[in-house]
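Marked as duplicate of an earlier ticket. Keeping the data here for the record.
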Amino acid sequence: MRGSLIHPAPVLAPVPMILSIIALVIASLALVISWRSYLYATERDKQLDTRSAERDKQLDTRSVIVTCRLFEEQYAQIPNPNATNPAAGTHTLIEVSAVNNGHRPVEIRAVHFLTSTGRQCVGKPSRRSGDKLPKHIADGESANVFFRKDALDGAAAKDAGTITSVIVTDAESHTYEGNYPA
C-alpha cells in the first residue's frame, strides 16, 4: 500500500449549499414582491377611502344657489264705486329663487337683503305670487319669493345705501348669497 494513493471522494457538499442559497434568494424576492403588493394595496385603499369620504361629505353637504331677477307684474286695482278713475299699472318685482343644488333637503326660512352700508333689510314678500316661507325643498327643487323693488329700494335708501345682494337662510342658520339685479 505503499504506493497506493487514496483518492478522496468527490466533494458534493457545495451543491446543497448552493441550492439552499438559491432557495433563500427566491424566498427573499417573493417576500419583496409581496411586500410591494401590500404597500400598493394599502396606498390604493387609502385613496379609495379618501375618495369615499369626499363623496360622502359632498352628499351630506347642503348647497343652495340663489338668483335674483327683475320681473314686471301688471295689476288692476279693484274698482271703487266712489272713484272716478280706477288705478291700473305695473309693479317691478324682484324674484328671489333658491334652488337646492345639494343632495340633502333644505328648509328655506327667510330672505334678507344686504345693503352697501353692510346692514340687512327685510322686505315684505308680495302677496300675489311666490312660495310662502318656510318652505321645504328637496334636491333640484326651488323656492321662489317675490318682493316689490320700489319698497326694497326705499328701505335701503333710508340707510343711504343701495341693495347689493340677497341672503337666504335655512332652518340650520346656513346662509346662501346671490347678487341683486341692478
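See parent ticket for discussion. The longest strand covers residues 64-76.
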